[in-house]
Specification:
By secondary structure, the chain is of the alpha/beta class. It has one domain. It contains 4 helices and 7 strands. Strands 1-7-6-5-4-3-2 form a 7-stranded mixed beta sheet. Helix 4 links the parallel strand 4 and strand 5. The termini are far apart. The relative contact order is 0.21. The C terminus is likely disordered.
Length: 224
């Protein structure tokens, strides 16, 4: 996505309103509490564990916390490898989780929009392609006649990414609608719903590289 096609951004009360527009069961605290829980659990790693284990645990616990919260609200869980999707009761929107780069949670026209930290697989690439179709259909109702129906288990109105980052000073996060990829990385957004949270306690800075497995990319395991 070019610098002249920046995402529409929602913050503060606008973020709350936009979440409710997406699904009335969504609340800002669902995301902030998942982030806080993941950060706390990620910091429980010990020096005896791999250096990147804290970041991987953080991602897994954020995924688990958010999906469990939404499951209790009637959302459904769908899994394919590491592609952990949660879909609302009406089947219109889905959410996956990814760590983001240093621009996550910041709206500043002088800096680039955020990117996902790690490569994404074919399932998310398919979802992003569907998101682009949704954008065109929303802009021009005539376009809907030419769009393909969403594949089974693909939310009818698109897939969103809960994007997060932890820095030395704070945690930042947003729920954003991906519409562009460069290679295996999500780089462009149609909308960004930004909110922030900070648990106030950090024992250390977690490693940023390779802190989560690539979404839905199978890993071959050596036998013997």
């Amino acid at each position: 996505m070019s610098e002249f096609q920046r995402a529409k951004v929602f913050e503060g009360l606008g973020a709350v309103t936009r979440l409710h527009d997406l699904d009335r069961t969504l609340a800002v605290d669902d995301f902030l509490e998942a982030l806080r829980y993941g950060v706390i659990e990620g910091h429980r790693s010990t020096p005896s564990e791999p250096q990147t284990s804290g970041g991987w645990v953080r991602w897994a616990k954020i995924v688990g916390s958010l999906r469990e919260t939404l499951r209790k609200k009637g959302w459904s869980l769908f899994d394919k490898g590491n592609y952990a999707l949660v879909v609302n009761p009406s089947g219109t929107i889905g959410i996956v989780v990814s760590s983001g780069d240093e621009n996550t949670g910041i709206d500043d026209p002088l800096i680039a929009e955020p990117r996902c930290n790690n490569p994404k697989g074919p399932a998310l690439a398919t979802a992003v392609e569907a998101n682009v179709q949704h954008q065109f259909a929303d802009a021009s109702p005539e376009f809907r006649r030419f769009t393909e129906p969403s594949p089974a288990r693909l939310p009818s109105d698109g897939t969103w990414i809960f994007l997060y980052i932890e820095t030395v000073d704070e945690q930042r996060c947003e729920l954003s609608f991906p519409t562009d990829m460069e290679g295996d990385y999500v780089t462009g957004w149609g909308e960004r719903i930004i909110f922030t949270g900070d648990d106030g306690e950090r024992a250390k800075r977690l490693p940023r590289a390779d802190d989560e497995p690539p979404l839905d990319v199978p890993i071959a395991r050596k036998v013997g």
